[in-house]
Amino acid sequence: DQQVKQNSPSLSVQEGRISILNCDYTNSMFDYFLWYKKYPAEGPTFLISISSIKDKNEDGRFTVFLNKSAKHLSLHIVPSQPGDSAVYFCAASDRNRDDKIIFGKGTRLHILP
Amino acid sequence: DVKVTQSSRYLVKRTGEKVFLECVQDMDHENMFWYRQDPGLGLRLIYFSYDVKMKEKGDIPEGYSVSREKKERFSLILESASTNQTSMYLCASSSLAGGADTQYFGPGTRLTVL
To answer: How far is residue A105's CA from residue A102's CA, in Å, rounded to a whole number?
Structure first.
């Protein structure tokens, strides 16, 4: 049973445009959400996170939006740059339960020149 | 900066061999994790540890064991490697401080079992 779903395996976006990566979750107890970025042959690197008490968190070109009623979050990258081409993992945690993070299957983002 | 290191970037082993994957973190983190990443399956948790000598099974522990004798070191052991254990193995650590769950990952070990 997949608790964190990234329904788009891949996404292509023109350089300079906005990239929007989506993520849905099923467990209403999740209270902390994260996005990781992964290049081939490297470990994932933490990108941005959001607590369930917020609906938006912004860090430079990256913004995460959380819609708790829809159990949906999205990562916006604007403007998209060639170095943004990577696999993006959405992840969620129930911090009242334990320190485990549940990861989605990832979305491969291609930034087109 | 948090640093998580893994003993090998690439490893090739034969079926039936015993395989040790080592992970070391230098930030005094309490939690350490082992994942495997496979195409189309994302990151799957194998084992994790909250403290020295403590271990908990993740989602796919079969065929694996772990050891945490020191706080900074978490080892993943494949008792008898099989071809279906060919994968990218990722170690991560996180701190209990502040309740934050941000995990920091090592560079990964790509294991091929022939």
So the answer is: 10
